[in-house]
Amino acid sequence: MRAVAVLADTMIVIEAVDTGCWNALSGQCRMVTSEACAAELRRGRTRTDASYVPVSEDAISRAEVRKVPLDVRVAFELRYPDAQRLDAGERELLAIAFGLSEDFRLCSCDKAAIAASRSMGMLDRVVSLEWLAKSVGARPRRAFRRQFTEKFLGECRTGLLLG
Asked: Fewer CB near the last or first residue (10 Å), C or N of the chain?
């Protein structure tokens, strides 16, 4: 799996850190995130609550943080006119994916990003965090929340394919 780039959004990194899977994933997969996602992770939540999961700079550094070249961003936004409706992190990740010639997987639980991946012909490259963790033998310290499971991703795919 190391040769395949795994593009991970902010929520995937947070859930992977919170479940204790991040080190296994980033040790066995070439994890990639966008500058916007890395900035979100560094910023954290703007309000403090008990469910806040801090992500350390060390954890962020275990992923390759990619900048989206302007020509790739423009080409992506021309190909996908609804790009501005996406969260900045997901928009950058999808632009990165759009510009890749190498094999990759997109790990996102964002419904809008999943729908965009279908429009871009990349739905078959979208994987759940649950699937990714299983693929490397990671054992989460708690069950993944619903939106990070294969069941959730399957429901999203089915809904998109049935229209």
From this structure: C
